């Protein structure tokens, strides 16, 4: 009896220890999710008031809002003269535009945000902000820029462009605007160009250059959610009324925008999320500065800058007071 009683007590203690370990693991997982952050996207924009016939002389006719890619910006970077990453792809779009047009005609803004993507299985942790936090901040910063300009300058037109994580942000805003729920009216958006869009989907966005098979990594990984990384799938409704104004550039072999379904399996969540984090540093993804989109040798940023310049040249000239 003594031996049997001892075994029962031992099993009871073991069960308590196991339950404590399970509880500790669940608490650790919950803490991991909380620290990594949840994806926060802005809701519908404000109701559009009656549009005036003129605006302040301080207002530009057009504003370009460029959203840099992962590791190409930081939260405190300068809106008009970004220096966080001197090799940032968006600089090869924004700088030529700034040199070509006077500020009263065109205001060129680069969205400053943390622009990071932590690897969920890095040990020790890589010290970066999670994709959820980074994308949420970039979306809010871009939204605030658009709202601020439209509030003060209701006749100013807009051009949106972005690369990589920045293309996801710019594309999400374009989708929201095209659905009539964005921070600015759709008729004021002259055009959108997305380079290496992680939510690229079949039939959404007019392709410039090659149109590789596959879809954006967020579409391939639709439904995947691990601490700090939420894959939101394709954009519901595409780009709505902006469908004919959105262009997409994607190089074959880039897992960010042209991922085959078999390459990133949502059923294998953690390794798939890690593969996505590493894809941003893949050589193919880093070569868009030299990626040629036509037979004349025009590169992706050159095409984007030329396209935007054409839109600025033909944009309305609002009356000023």
From TrEMBL:
Q: Which UniProt keywords apply?
A: Disulfide bond, Hydrolase, Serine esterase
InterPro entries recorded: AB_hydrolase_fold (IPR029058), Cutinase/axe (IPR000675)
SUPFAM superfamilies named in the record:
alpha/beta-Hydrolases
Q: Does the keyword Hydrolase apply?
A: yes
Report the Pfam families cross-referenced here. Answer: Cutinase (PF01083)
Q: Give an example GO molecular function.
A: carboxylic ester hydrolase activity
Q: Which family does it belong to?
A: Belongs to the cutinase family.
Q: What is this protein called?
A: Cutinase family protein
Which species?
Antrihabitans stalactiti
Show the taxonomic lineage: Bacteria, Bacillati, Actinomycetota, Actinomycetes, Mycobacteriales
